[in-house]
Every structure is written in C-alpha cells, then in structure tokens.
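User: I'm putting together notes for a lab meeting next week and I want to include a structural view of one of the chains we've been expressing. I don't have a solved structure, so I'd like a prediction I can at least talk through. The sequence is below, exactly as it appears in our construct file.
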Amino acid sequence: MKKTIEYYMSLPYRLEIIPDVEEVGYGARFPELPGCFTYAETYEDIIKNAMDAKRTWFKAALEDGIHIAEPISQAELNDLEEIPSQYKLRIPKTLYRSLKNHAEIEGVSMNQYCNYLLSMNDSLYSMNKREIASM
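Assistant: Thanks for the context. Below is the predicted structure for the 135-residue chain, given as structure tokens.
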C-alpha cells in the first residue's frame, strides 16, 4: 500500500506546544518529525500552524523519498519521561551574540531559535546516518 499524506495525517503524532515566556506566543513541534517546527502568537493559531507544518513536512518528505517514522508507542513514550528536557550549555560570547541576533531577525526567542537549529541539525544527522546505513 502506498502511503499518502492523508494516511500520515490520520496517525496520532504527538504535538508539543511550548509557551514562549520571553516573547508572547507559542512554539510547536512534532518530536517524531525532525525539523517540523512552527510558531504563532495565539494558542488558536499555533494549532492551525502546527497542522499546516505537519502537512507540508509530509509532502516534502514524500516528494524527496525521505523515510517517515510512524508515531512512537506508549511504552516508548513512558521511557522518554525519564529523560530530562533541559540542558545547560556554555557557549562563547560571540556565538551567543550571533544566535541572539538571528533570533531577533526571525522574530522569535533565543530558546525557540536554538531549539529550531538543534532540531534541524538532529534531522540532518539522522538522515545522513540512514543514507550511510543503506549503502
């Protein structure tokens, strides 16, 4: 069976909504969909933006032949609860200034911008790892 966008949209992917206390608004991501992240100023808009981002992510993945993982099981979710979700990181002042400037240009908080960059890098790493494994 060829899986379509509608097939993937019907699956129960976990949506994380992150209130932004520094800026007024919300960030949202689907942890099983690397790099699928969006932002909105209101709670109502974040839900709509998240569904649009998910649909766009599936469309791009299907067009590019990227493997789409299906949602993780409840047992796997329970295992994740044991993992801390905060990590303190020391960075050079010049890198901090650069990240802060880019976040301001994008109109998001530094936390959201760094989360976006880490998610994108993790996604690229995962895709490269799969490509190497398939060789």
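A couple of points you could mention at the meeting. Residues 110-133 form the longest helix (24 residues). The two ends are 25 Å apart (CA to CA).

User: Perfect, that's what I needed.
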